[in-house]
């Protein structure tokens, strides 16, 4: 259908130099970045985290960047996360904070010893987080990395039991992964999945992905772990709320997660109902891959940004 065409077209358009230029410079670029990204620096991110805390919302902060191929760049990312945690601590908002980390930003894609390097780097970030009572969640990237990332979560959890995993409902394998991960103490973020994947590994179509998401919710909400329900989809938020009520889950035994700049009224509404709500706060200069995913999953996001630009 039309949405499928747009989904195929947008990444191609973004591949064209003039389109890339207009997305990285100029007023439309600024409007898009302002809507979805907290800012360029860790100070910007901490300001947003503090603002969320004033509204009764928690945060998971993500330093933008991915697919690093040199170990020096991976180390620089680790240091940046440690500075961020330190800054949040000094600002009094590190306790209960989460950081979202992409293994490809800390070495997973470095030739030869990427697997080991990304594990060691993640452990270093986890140690920095633990020191200020914060936690780490490993973002999930494309399906070629799922096994390595889930294995790394298991390894990290030996020393840092609060490390969270992300599962993507669009992957056919995910229901089985939900059963594996629905354990005592495990933190699992369930999202639809933002990567374009080969047909063989995914459920086809929005309806099928939503149905898979609902089944995964059933497994996670009924289990003894800590589900993190990451979606803006009103239908799925209400499925989750229904399941939570049915099982009689305590309000501190799960959370909703939404992206910075998306459905802010809903973020507040969920919190006002007594749910824990955590907002994913990306920051840093390397925003193009993140923003591309936001535009591909919902081309209307471009209109929102364009409108915000018009209102200035
Ligand atoms: P989707 O985008 O399909 O939207 C469903 C409905 O929600 C829309 O029809 C509309 O009603 C409403 N809606 C959505 N956006 C709106 C807006 N701007 N304004 C008003 N209404 C809006 N992916 C991944 O692969 N790995 C990861 O680690 C993560 N991590 C992650 C963390 C968090 C906290 C979130 C929220 C998401 C992720 N994702 C992710 C991204 C995820 O996989 C997915 O691509 C997006 O969340 C989009 O899917 P939704 O479920 O939000 O619904």
From TrEMBL:
Keyword hit for Flavoprotein: yes
Catalysed reactions listed for this entry: L-proline + a quinone = (S)-1-pyrroline-5-carboxylate + a quinol + H(+)
This protein's record includes keyword Oxidoreductase: yes
Co-factor binding comment: Binds 1 FAD per subunit.
InterPro entries: FAD-linked_oxidoreductase-like, PRODH_bac_arc, Proline_DH_dom, Proline_oxidase
Occurrences of domain Proline dehydrogenase (ranges): 50-301
Residues noted as binding FAD in the record, renumbered to the chain: 140, 168, 192-194, 231-232
PANTHER family hit by this protein: PROLINE DEHYDROGENASE 1, MITOCHONDRIAL (PTHR13914:SF0), PROLINE OXIDASE (PTHR13914)
Listed name of the protein: proline dehydrogenase
